[in-house]
Amino acid sequence: MDFENGSGNDPTPFLFSATLIGVYNIKNMKNMKELLDYIRSLPKNLIVLINVKSVDYQKTNIEILRVLANEENLPGVYITVNKPYKTMKRILEEEGIKTDNLFFIDCITKTSGGEIDQNDKKVFYLDTPENLTGIGVAMGEAIRHIPSEDKFLFMDSLSTLLIYRSVGTVAKFSHFLTGRMRVWGLRGILMSVEKETDPEFISQLTQFCDAVITLDENG
Q1: Cα–Cα nearest to 72, from 102, 52, 50
Q2: What is the secondary structure of the chain as a DSSP string?
Q3: Exposed e or buried b for every residue in 178-193, given b needs 16+ CB within 10 A?
């Protein structure tokens, strides 16, 4: 999986749900309740890209996870690019989010020189967010740890990857990521912070996702 040079020959078919894209398409939402009701109403195995302002970012992540992990009691994989695993897990638990059924892929602890708990079997630590291939491999390992057929993948910031890699490279990775999610039958939530996101990148991602939502509570 060489996302930079495009030379990888991964056999996973990239299956796009053209009918669903036509139905759900691109939506602007003005409040959290509208967004969460929308998440609750979506069919399973759907992939949604959600753009939020930085001021709404953490609150939105928490409330979406409250729906998936608490209300629907789904197991899932959380890919954290912005905060170390220990910090993110603490924040979620302080907010009452159930983490027992969450498996984490931590892309930032090693980069920031944070402490790693080798005995914690609910997290994979990657050397750097630049290692997109490593994220893909860890995602496969994490999914294999979850026996339930109904599960989700939550990536807390695709846009942050643009700090480390080019738009084209992250778009290729997103293509791979969404393809795998479809093959595994996952419900996917991909978060992006508006000011960090290149319009060209969003344009490419709309081809891979069933819905693209922009939340603007102050708009």
Answers
A1: 102
A2: --TTTT-----------HHHHHHHEEEEESSHHHHHHHHHHSPSS-EEEEEE-GGGHHHHHHHHHIIIIIIS---EEEEESSS-HHHHHHHHHHTT---TTEEEEESSTTTTT----TT-TTEEE-S-TT-HHHHHHHHHHHHHT---SS-EEEES-TGGGGGTS-HHHHHHHHHHHHHHHHHHT-EEEEEEEGGG--HHHHHHHTTT-SEEEEE-TT-
A3: bbbbbebebbbbbbbb
CA distance 23 to 10: 29
Condensed to tens digits (0 to 9), the pLDDT of residues 2-19 reads 555 544 444 333 333 333
Q: Biggest alpha carbon distance in the chain? A: 46
Q: Where are the domains of the chain?
A: 20-215
Query: pTM higher than 0.70 for the full model?
Result: yes
Tens digits of residue pLDDT in 160-188:
888 888 888 888 899 999 999 999 999 99
Q: What is 20-215's CATH number?
A: 3.40.50.300
**CA–CA separation, 213 and 207 (whole Å):** 14
Confidence (pLDDT) at 9: 41
What separation, in Å, do the N-terminal and C-terminal C-alpha atoms of the chain show?
Answer: 40
State both tokens at 99: 């983490």
